[in-house]
Write the structure tokens for this entry.
Amino acid sequence: MQQLNDETYMRLALQLAEATKGQTTLNPVVGCIIVKKGRIIGMGAHLKMGTEHAEVQALQMAGKDAEGSTAYVTLEPCSYYGKTPACAERLVKEKVSRVVIACQDANPQVSGHGIQILKDAGIEVEVGVLEKHAIRLNEMFSKFITKKMPFVTLKTASTLDGKIASKTGDSRWITNETSREYIHTLRHQHQAIMVGVETVIADDPSLTTRLPVIGLHPIRIIVDSNLRTPLDSKAIQDKSAKTILLTTENAPCNTIDHFKQQGISVIICGNNKHVDLVIAMQQLAEQGVGSILLEGGGRLNGAMLEAKLIDKIILMYAPKIIGGEVAPANFHFKGFEKMSESIVLENLVTHNFNNDICIIGYPNYI
Ligand code: AOF
Ligand code: ZN
């Protein structure tokens, strides 16, 4: 039997927030639980950018009973009128007595100000209950709102010897079904999915989300310096998700027109031989892409890593060894000379998916 305490209610609020991952676009995921005299009287989650915040949903459910209650919120209540009114002021207006907050909002427009509004109104405020969990939950939002760059999660699925296909190019399947379902969940939780043109040519993937329940389809981004993406490929023809091609100034104009006629966006990223990945990320951020799941081949993975554009790495290893000198590897870049120069993953978490091993970490770039 779980004890009823602040952590119990906050855990519930975090679960509400967690379940909405992937559906709030550039906004954070937030959950709120309102409790009075041992009863939950309101619960809410922020469901979609531009709609009511979690606190407002929960307060609406609580009605007049909100007076004298305790509100559990996974993120500091907002302090300004954005697309919706300020939640901190609403909590004051509804005469809530105590507000328990998991973590501060990274949004500079809010950070600390929401807490101050509550304190100034004489509300008892506690910050930091299940804080680590709450910070991780909104890592994508926090990066985008502070750096104006998309949060990039790199995912690879390889054999134990780091191969993403055999020497003949066979790659179906490396990992097991449980791992593949997890990968589809990751797609659902990101705003966009990014691959290189080589992957499109070799595998013709549809790059949609396929789960036992219907999932959200992320925007498809193809890095294609010379616009070699076949017009009849699934990523171009399938209209269940938007597709963006990243290319360079050297791409032939008439080819750009062909793609545009298909409703595909083409973004020019510099005039080098290859797409300038920093410009690409900046341009995507400007177009409102806040999170990207990178499912690249070895070269794109390597280039993104070298450019220090990857925030989080998810390595899925099937317990297989395929060998083959020409079999492609999950990271392909010029490499470092010394072990001491290598990129180290921090804050590691590991999972076992039916004997596929999943390693999650955050690269520490020196
Ligand atoms: C909260 N509760 O449920 C959310 C918050 O444009 P708006 O009005 O939706 O405001 C967006 C900002 O509000 C967003 O950048 C973040 O700082 C905060 N989101 N705050 O108290 C919520 N979604
Ligand atoms: Zn708010």
Summary: The radius of gyration is 23 Å. Residues 53, 55, 77-78, 87 surround zinc ion (ligand 2) (CB under 6 Å).
